[in-house]
Amino acid sequence: MGSMLTRAIDEAGFSEARGRVLAGESLSPTELERLRGADLLVVAGLADLVRQQFRGDEVRLIASPSPRDPALCVFAAAADNGEGTGTTGADVLRSIALTRLQIPADRALAVSLDELGVELAQTALVFGADVLFGDLGGKRTLPLIDGPDARRVELTGLIERSGRRVVFEGVARSADLEQRS
Amino acid sequence: MSEFSTIAAKVAAGERLSFEDGCTLLLDHDILRVGALANQVRERQHGDRTYFNVNMRFEATNVCEASCSFCAFAKLKEGAEGAHTTTHEEAWRELAEHPEPRLTELHMVNGLHPHLPFEWYEDLLRGWKRVRPDVHLKCFTAVEIHFFAQKFGMGYREVLTRLKAAGLGSLPGGGAEILHPDVRKRIATDKANGDDYIAVHRVAHELGIKSNCTMLYGHIETIEHRVDHLVRLRELQDETAGFQCFIPLAFHNENNSLRKLPEPTAIDSLRTLAVSRLMLDNIPHIKAYWVAMGVATAQTALRFGADDLDGTIVHESIYHSAGSRVPMELSRGELVRLIREAGRVPVERDTVYGVVEELPRAALPEAALKVKDRLSNKRALDVMLGN
User: Fold this and answer.
1) Is pLDDT of B380 > 50?
2) H helix count then E strand count, chain B
3) Which pLDDT belongs to residue A146?
4) A98–B371: do the CB atoms touch at under 8 Å?
5) 3-class SS at A133?
6) Calpha distance B91→B84 (Å, rounded)
7) A144 touching B, CB under 8 A?
8) In chain B, pLDDT over 90 holds for what percent of residues?
9) Nearest chain B residue to A66, by CA
10) What are the residue ranges spanned by the domains of chain B?
11) CATH architecture of the domain covering B3-372
């Protein structure tokens, strides 16, 4: 995280909050209330600080999260494609970042590829998420690399282009994909 | 000082960024800090004001003698499956019967039709002006203007002067693709080259015709090609100040010859838009074109340097032919909501950025209210945490 964004967080009046989340402490109800109306990038910046410090650069890709996994928090919200009066992309991203700031710092935060769509799910990785789950073998694959690993190769590229490392968990991979990683 | 810090210091001092600075920023993995830097410039220029318009798209013909490898819209011949050329009457009726009384702009882009006479286009514009004289006609890319000049043996100045006399208001920015010849010769060989694109806009600006400019990114080009493209546009803007807006256009890979390439990701789109804001210090507006970026990414881009969401559109074929899954239309109310939920102030504009109506800011960002409802519900959080 650049010092510029840190400065922006501090200038927005969240320096104490920054110190607290980096110490793994909870935010006060007042701070959370203020963050709900704060600049989206400030909220993202705080969430990303927590993610970096406690979760690192690893992004886990799993087919399906276990509802009983105590180390995992699953974010659930449907993105709106502008057709109705539901949530918008900015709304979803703010919710993800605020969730990151409310759950225990060492807990993974998972978002659904199928619910959010690939674009918003990738963006969520800089708003505090560190686990993607969903259909890893489905549609929208690249014709050149069609086959059982196509979707996974595509997702690997997508995550690596966000500057993060990919770990497939509980998903069998072919020798070809092993070689790529 | 790190390279990023050096660049941030230049931005803070209002200094121009170099080609190398642009490359550094496009390679920076920390998208949040690049976005924050672009957001700083955007807010310095426009505060929270975010523009949109009530417009309609129109494609009079998709018959096109060019064969650009990224294009899924064009049909090479009249009579080919899916080929369509409108009649004047159809075109005029579509505008006359447009249901939105607040409509201020008609945006038209066409294929390079091998047989339509120049007068056909002039009559088309004149007819539109007869039925809706109040609607601004933003028509013909620089590639079309170049095509007309070659086909009908005229200079750019004559083509543009005649179209202006027929009702042309301004030029859209399409057709720029990537201006560097190394890329252009591989994806768009048989139409205006990069120098032609610049030359058409230069003449348009000299004639008092404002225009937009674009960049099609995320296909075979390198980071250096993207920055070179931005620098070329910036140099022309230094000369003419005629560009109103820059629109980065994300490559889509369906139904075209480049279908084996992956599309740019949302993060790449946000980074490209942010760097565009930082490099193009003399172009007033940066547009997050929701048809190309997707609605959610375009809305997010309003915090990464963009100050414009484009308009209602109504019907769009070029991106939808290439696999865009966004809706064909966003209502005015929907655009206002998207802008407000990004914490910005919606400003309805006309094509040349005259203010039609500045709408009030949401008392508290609507998104924040919803998030509050959702997250203050302890039970919901407990469920998410598995408690």
Assistant:
1) no
2) 17, 11
3) 44
4) yes
5) strand
6) 12
7) yes
8) 72
9) B386
10) 3-372
11) Alpha-Beta Barrel (3.20)
Q: Which of these ranges, A12-16, A112-116, B196-200, has the smallest mean pLDDT?
A: A112-116
Per-residue pLDDT at A176 exceeds 60: no
Whole-angstrom Cα Rg for chain A: 17
> B318 falls in which pLDDT band (50, 70, 90)?
low
Overall average pLDDT of the B78-105 stretch: 92
**For chain A, how many structural domains are there in total?**
1
β partners of residue B358: B347
Q: Which distant-in-sequence residues (6+ apart) come within 8 Å of B70 by Cβ?
A: B177, B187, B188, B216, B219, B251, B256, B257, B258, B322
Q: Which of A10, A18, A49, A94 to mutate to test the interface with B (most CBs of B within 10 A)?
A: A94
Higher confidence at residue A84 or residue B233?
B233
Calpha distance B242→B210 (Å, rounded): 5
Closest Cβ opposite residue A73 in set B31, B270, B385: B385
Name the residue of chain B whose CA is nearest to A101's CA: B375
Report the C-alpha gap between A66 and A61 in whole angstroms: 13
- Residue B80's CB: how many other CB atoms inside 10 A? 12
Paired strand residues for A74: A110
A2 touches chain B (CB under 8 A): yes
**What distances in angstroms separate CA A101 from CA A30, A98, B1, B248, one per listed residue?**
13, 5, 31, 33
Distance CA B206, CA B239 (A): 10
> Which chain B residues are within 8 Å of A82, Cβ to Cβ?
290, 295, 326-327, 330, 334, 338
Query: pTM score > 0.90 for this model?
Result: no
Residue of A41, A49, A57 to mutate, testing the B interface (most B Cβ within 10 Å of its Cβ): A41
The answer to whether B5 touches B34, Cβ cutoff 8 Å, is no
The arithmetic mean of pLDDT across residues B173-197, rounded, is 94
Structural domain of A59: 3-180
Residue B316 has pLDDT above 80, yes or no: no
A175 touches chain B (CB under 8 A): no
Are the CB atoms for B124 and B74 separated by under 8 Å?
A: no
Residue B316 near residue B57 (C-beta atoms within 8 A): yes
Arithmetic mean of pLDDT over chain A:
81
pLDDT in tens, A121-171: 989 999 999 999 987 654 443 333 444 566 677 778 778 877 789 988 865
C-alpha–C-alpha distance, residues B9 and B1, integer Å: 10
Question: Complex ipTM above 0.90?
Answer: no
